[in-house]
Amino acid sequence: MAGHRSIAETEKAVQSKLAGFQLQREQMAAVANIHRAAAVVRQHLENSVLRPWDLTWTGFVVLWVLWIWGETETRHVAEEAGMSKGTLTGVSRTLESRGLVARSTHPHDGRRVLLALTADGERLMEQLFPAFNTEEAFVVARLTSEECLALADSLRSVVAQLEELGEERRMELLDGAPPAPRRSGRRPRT
After folding, report:
1. pTM for this structure?
2. pLDDT: which is higher, 65 or 178
């Protein structure tokens, strides 16, 4: 039967299915729960605090990157937001049509494009982010402040491992083959 299954039900099913395998179970649980947590948090934030603003997670992340870093070349926005340049093109066009983002040509290279928040985009983020942060606090309400900091430090370590050694490991595992092109999966709304 399809439908929502709790984390406890999922973990029990995984343990049963993988009982005969020699695995690094603690590491598997950590990575699986990073993925589960990211998916459920994203879905919750998109369906609660972002919905009144008619924003998807992807649109919000683009706005966030531009709000924090200011005018930025599209390839860097895509990289910071963890999306393909093709996905960014669609998202940024939608945000531009809503008057939240402006695009311009790079002053030294006409082939490159820059994105920046408009004044309306700035105002939106100034209004939206406090509500977003309140919902972030709700999401981690079962953790103490110290546990939040420990979790953040642990996740920074995961990110640092991949930033520092991930490409070398990928090359090793794939015998130097180039990475697969990034796929957007589904056409994003903004």
Report:
1. 0.80
2. 65
Q: Give the mean pLDDT of 115-125.
A: 97
Token pair 């903004």 is at which residue? Answer: 190
Structure letter (DSSP) for residue 48 = T
Measure the CA–CA gap between 62 and 2, rounded to whole angstroms: 33
From the list 105, 44, 42, the residue with the least C-alpha distance to 71 is: 105
CB of 82 closer than 8 Å to CB of 58: no
Please give the residue that has the higher pLDDT: either 64 or 20. 64
Given the structure tokens 């953790």, which residue do they identify? 143
At 39, the amino acid letter reads A
Give the integer Cα–Cα distance in Å for 85 and 92.
10
Distance CA 77, CA 145 (A): 31
Contact (CB, 8 A) for 113 and 107: no
Of 59, 69, 115, nearest in space to 91 by CA: 59
Query: Hey, what are 8's tokens?
Result: 């406890």
Alpha carbons 159 and 157: distance in angstroms, whole number: 5
